[in-house]
User: What shape does this take?
Amino acid sequence: MRSTAPAAALVLVASMSMVSAQPVRWTTYTIPQTGTSVDFPSSIFSEEAGRPDGHGQRFRTADGRADITVQAAPNVDNDTPAAFLAKKNPPSRIQYKRVTPRFFAVSSYKGDKVWYDRCNFSGRLVHCVLINYPAREERQWDEIVTRISLSLRGR
Assistant: This one.
């Protein structure tokens, strides 16, 4: 984990009415049953917010404006990322979409929120991270979402 926070993260913390001028504290969350792991800013997503389908955990900001879900589920039909995504019937107006043989990442707007989903495929499991945050803060979230996305791992 890095010991210094990027400037954007400091702005994000300040804009979220949290303790300003403090670096973002990153934590690795791991799902023991599946080995799914992801780095996430635990100083921003400070509250547990229930469990998703399959294995994992949801977290949210103290004010409830943003949330993150880390989850793993069986890939019952052994779908490719493209086939798995197609079965989910994603909205037609996706703003960002990247599909490879090992993962997909999609993002768009829903109301006043940005949603971002990334799922990595390994063996018979799908390892996912789903993030929702205010659209008006999109630029401040860019570095954080990128770091979270790139840290997603599964065995």
About this structure: The mean pLDDT is 87. The longest strand covers residues 113-122. Strands lie at 26-31, 36-41, 47-48, 55-60, 67-74, 96-99, 103-110, 113-122, 125-134.
